[in-house]
Write a structure and sequence with these properties.
Elements: E1 5-10, H1 19-36, E2 40-43, H2 55-65, E3 70-73, E4 76-77, H3 83-96, E5 101-102, E6 104-106, H4 118-122, H5 134-143, E7 201-203, H6 207-215, E8 219-222, E9 225-229, H7 237-250, E10 260-264, E11 266-268, H8 274-287, E12 295-297, E13 300-304, E14 308-310, H9 312-320, E15 330-334, H10 341-358, H11 364-371
Length: 372
């Protein structure tokens, strides 16, 4: 089994009284990952938690402190977002990172809030919104340059209206500027970064979402959770997820070659001191019970995979024995939520120097040197 890309997923945890330090540590992890040759890093998006909820802002900040690593989301929960506003934020972050963006999404019907607060979270008239996966296609289309007709009222001394017009000319610097090449308005979301619409990802946790993603030309990141009907109860987690990614490959739209990122919680113990080893074992012991049986939601089941905490050799055995991993292009390391910076650094370093090379991966920096 071989992978061509290596990434990590981080929640950017911070202390409520001092969020700046936690965010700064997360940016430093991206800088470290870039030095180690990682191809990408993904920001977990969280609402009403001690973690970032506005990923485009954070992506832009990371982009100013890095130069080559791609910056993604895992993932933006689209039902909480206004598609037009979010598309503008993604477009701006794409330009500020010079196209090093991997926008990642999920979507679901409104749920989870006490009566009377739905309008606060989903906007006025939310009952009439489309919360299907087509919301994702709309956001991608807007970022990609979909034409928007905007009736612009007359204004200014001459009361002359301005129509949308594209131009690459230098901005007008006259005493009464009217925009670029005399035109202030565009007929698409700006700034526009060509090709960014081909880098959109969706988090897939079911057969249904895998098929939709393939048919609609979305790349996929799958991780340690899957959902489905009760027939899943007759499968192991790995068997069920292998079927999911196989179906994704089978249903890809003509001419589309989707990328699959294999997300796993991986904690190498090689070289850990006594305190670190005890912390890692306690983490595994606390999380394992939820993986022993499926969680029922009506006629649906949710499965969570056991984390892999062990030596590099044990981690490689686990990955190579996982049938879904054989379909992956990328290994995405899911960093634990509650560890310290030094723990995160150890994980990134050991994966980049010991785990990923044994799976056929070469650091992005090494590939750049070779190509040059």
């Amino acid at each position: 089994m071989s992978i061509t890309s290596l990434s990590f997923v981080h929640i950017f945890p911070f202390a409520p009284a001092n969020p700046a330090d936690g965010l700064e540590e997360g940016i430093r992890l991206f800088q470290l990952a870039e030095l180690l040759g990682y191809d990408a890093g993904y920001i977990r998006t969280r609402h009403l938690q001690f973690a970032p909820a506005g990923p485009a802002v954070l992506q832009a900040a990371i982009g100013q402190r890095t130069s080559s690593i791609e910056i993604g989301n895992a993932c933006i929960v689209a039902q909480y977002e206004n598609p037009f506003n979010l598309a503008e934020e993604i477009a701006l972050a794409a330009a500020l990172t010079r196209g090093r963006l991997r926008p990642g999404f999920s979507v679901a019907p409104p749920r989870g809030f006490e009566n009377g607060l739905e309008g606060l979270f989903y906007g006025a008239g939310w009952q009439h919104e489309d919360f299907s996966r087509q919301r994702l296609n709309k956001i991608r289309s807007l970022v990609g340059g979909e034409k928007i007709r905007l009736e612009v009222p007359a204004f200014g001394p001459a009361a002359v209206g301005h129509k949308a017009e594209q131009s690459d000319e230098v901005r007008d610097t006259s005493p009464s500027p009217t925009g670029i090449n005399g035109h202030l308005f565009s007929d698409r979301i700006e700034p526009h970064w060509p090709g960014i619409e081909d880098k959109f990802w969706v988090a897939s946790t079911s057969l249904d979402s895998a098929i939709w993603s393939a048919e609609n030309r979305w790349h996929v990141i799958y991780d340690n959770m899957i959902h489905g009907d009760k027939s899943l109860g007759f499968c192991s987690f790995d068997q069920a997820q292998a079927r999911q990614v196989q179906v994704y490959r089978e249903h890809q739209a003509p001419g589309f070659i989707g990328q699959l990122a294999h997300g796993r919680v991986v904690v190498p113990t090689d070289g850990a001191n006594g305190d670190q080893a005890a912390k890692y074992q306690a983490y595994l012991d606390e999380r394992t019970p939820r993986t022993l049986a499926p969680i029922e939601f009506g006629d649906q089941l949710s499965f969570i995979r056991k984390d892999t905490v062990g030596t590099v050799s044990q981690i490689l055995d686990d990955l190579n024995g996982d049938p879904s991993f054989g379909y992956a292009d990328e290994l995405a390391i899911l960093l634990p939520f509650t560890f310290d910076f030094d723990d995160y650094r150890r994980i990134l370093e050991l994966v980049a120097t010991e785990v990923a090379p044994a799976l056929g991966w070469r650091p992005a920096t090494e590939r750049l040197v070779t190509v040059g």
